[in-house]
Amino acid sequence: MSEEYKSLQQIIDFRMEKLNKLREASVNPYPHKYEPTHKSQYILNHYDELEGQTVCVAGRIMALRKMGKASFAHVMDSAGRIQIFIRRDDVGEDIYNHFKLLDIGDYAGVEGEIFTTKTGEITIRTNKLTILAKSIRPLPMVKEKDGQVFDAFSDKEQRYRNRHLDLIVNPEVRKIFVKRARIIQEVRQALDEQGFLEVETPVLQPLYGGANARPFTTYHNSLDQKLYLRIADELYLKRLIIGGFDRVYEIAKDFRNEGMDRNHNPEFTML
């Protein structure tokens, strides 16, 4: 029966059975090290020069089509996703049986040659499979057809409370994280080129100021003193200017103990 029609506990129990079968077969389902040679997107972008060569990728299994003696899967890494093809005659019966114990959400390392299927999809023909992590809990159900995604993990409350799942099943969210990091990188570079010095100022402060906001409070046991999470960086930056640094900046977390919604968070980044 498909996992789609089972309860969460049934799925967990079923996956635990598979995990135990792997261990009984002397397979370590959680190895500590694996070194891929390429990212999936690099392979897709450089197929002409990599065709027929052996590559090694690692990632999360996002789609499975298990058949008799041959199967397909999609593996997703930090750069994208690529299809793999695995055949019993290529990897041997034992490894193929291990593959059949995998589920969507598991991590695997794949080594093999690059080729194109009859439908034109760039694929890795597996000659070596390494199980990197056996997942126990299932991912949210996401269905795709003709390039369209439906029945996705779209409830905003669930997405914000389970950001790790949101990143796995919604590629657009991953792009936002990457864009944010690049924006901060560009801001740093621009300020550095203008002679500004990046500094760090205290997060825990005996006095709060720099903005009209309510602070979070905490207590320092060793000092026997009440402290506040900063609501702004301004006061300590001004001290640095007084000390002789005429151009300083800080990209840091500030905290304000006030209302919150999807556009306002008590913990936020300020320049």
TrEMBL record:
Residues 180-271 form the Aminoacyl-transfer RNA synthetases class-II family profile domain. InterPro entries: Aa-tRNA-synt_II, aa-tRNA-synth_II, aa-tRNA-synth_II/BPL/LPL, Lys-tRNA-ligase_II_N, Lys-tRNA-synth_II_C, NA-bd_OB-fold, NA-bd_OB_tRNA. Its EC number is 6.1.1.6. The keyword Nucleotide-binding applies. It holds the Pfam family tRNA-synt_2. It catalyses: tRNA(Lys) + L-lysine + ATP = L-lysyl-tRNA(Lys) + AMP + diphosphate. This is lysine--tRNA ligase. GO terms for molecular function: ATP binding; lysine-tRNA ligase activity; metal ion binding; tRNA binding. It comes from marine metagenome. Belongs to the class-II aminoacyl-tRNA synthetase family. GO terms for biological process: lysyl-tRNA aminoacylation. GO terms for cellular component: cytosol. SUPFAM superfamilies: Class II aaRS and biotin synthetases, Nucleic acid-binding proteins. The keyword NAD does not apply. Keywords: Aminoacyl-tRNA synthetase, ATP-binding, Ligase, Metal-binding, Nucleotide-binding, Protein biosynthesis.
